[in-house]
Each structure stands twice: as C-alpha cells, then as structure tokens.
Amino acid sequence: MTIARPFVSFVVWFLFLFFFGVLAVHGAAAQEDVFLKREVPYVATPQVTVDEMLRLANVGPQDFVIDLGSGDGRIVVTAAKKFGARGLGVDLDWRLVQQGEENARQAGVADRVRFLEQDLFKTDLSQATVITTYLLPFVMLRLRAALLELKPGTRVVSHDFDFGDWLPDQKTSIRKNVFLWIVPARAAGRWQARLGLPPIERLLDLELTQRYQEVSAHARLNGVPSQVWETKLVGDRLSFVVVDTTDRENEENLYFDGRVNGDVIEGELTRGVGAGRSVTRWRAVKVGQ
User: Fold this and answer.
1) 71: alpha, beta or left? (left if phi > 0; alpha if psi -120 to 50)
2) What is the pLDDT of residues 23-47, one digit of tens each?
3) Residue 30 is inside which H or E element, if any?
C-alpha cells in the first residue's frame, strides 16, 4: 500500500513542530533560570544585618524560616544557631547550595536546616512562619501576591528592598535598611455583633475597608452612627475603639480586641477605664462584602 506523499509530509512537519515546541519550553525555562541568576546576583548580607533581620522578625524556636535566594546559607544557619529555629534555604546556584550545607555542618545545625537548588517562585511557602529575602525590586514585586496569600501573621523580612505600595509594619537600619511585614488577614466587609452591655443590648454594625494592613472603619450602635478610633490590623489581630453614645450623659469608650478567622472575629471587649472598667467577650459575624 502506498501512503500519499502529502500525508507523509504532514506527519514529518507535525513531529518537527512537536519536538521544536518541547525544546522551546525547556529552553524558556532554562533561560528564565539563567535570567534570574544573572539579574539577581549573589551579594552576601552583612552578619550584623542578618542578626537584625531575625531580631526584628522576633524569630524563636517555634519558627520555620524560609530564605529565598539563600546564597551561602547564613540567614537560615543563624536562625538555627542563634535563635533555635528550623529553616530552609532556596537558591538557583548549586554551588551556593553546597556551600550553605557545608556552613550548616560547620555550625552544628545541619539537623535543623536544609537547602534546595530550586526556583523561589516554585517553592512551597506554606510551612513558613518567617520569610526572609534579599532580592531586587522587580523580583520583590513578582513575589508580593504569593506572600499576601500566606497564613495571616506570617512575618516577612527583607534586606534593602521593599514591596512597593505594601508599606512595612516596621523598619530599622543596621548597615542596611531592614523591613518587616506581617501578612494581614482579610478583614474587609460588613460585620455584625450583639453586645450584652447593660442597661440594654447593643447591635454593632461595623464596616471595614482594607488596603494591605491599613484598615478604616465605620460603625453604628443600634442604628446610630458612632465614632471609631485607633483601628489597627496586625496579622489576624484587629483592634479598634468605638465611642458608645447610648447614654449621652455618660459616654464611654468600648475597646475591641479580636482575631479574624474567616467570617468570624472573636475576642475581648473592654468597657470604660480604671475602676469602672469591665471586660467581656464579643463575637462578630461577616454579613456582607
């Protein structure tokens, strides 16, 4: 049986395109690795700056530190040796990965840290309680969205470069600028809480707007607009003060402190100050976006 020449040509052309496509995909991935290696050169962070990064992030034995672009491993090694933490270093350069492993052995912390030759954008960050970086601005901006998806309260600390309009929660300078961010919970929306405060129960309607960790609030108590002060979101912890005008002759401050957990906020409510101070529990439920 004779196979038509046009069909043979089609098969040959299809196979050519298939193998060329495979090579192109692998080539693009390799080029990205080379690009990152070239555009994110390794520059060692001064040890005093490493110490300050970990101090600012309040690293302790309960923490798991992931260093993105770990170089010679000094950040995770220091986290383990000086702060008792566990850690993971990620770098594209296999020689630096080996150097980090050797430095961990020499420091006696090889059982608490490990290193991976890996693209930082392909790294699972979910186990981290602390993320450390020393990356150029364009890489920081690419990374920002992934960090904001991490568990609220995760601490992110960077040497020299920031995340653009996501402003740091804290900043210090030891030889270099050091920035700390705390991943915020998603608190935006409309919330309601029933407050069992004598002489009558109060219905709190709270509307929160949010940009990163910056939150503004509007409130009503039993339908009456009430002033809100000192709104603050740190990780999953939300605090604010509402002026209770239910009794115009005896206005009082209501100090709210709670943790945001999905569609619920729960915590303590302090009414008044000094000898007239009382503390009770409060719980708000999300009722709208």
Assistant:
1) left
2) 333 443 444 444 444 455 788 899 9
3) helix 5-39
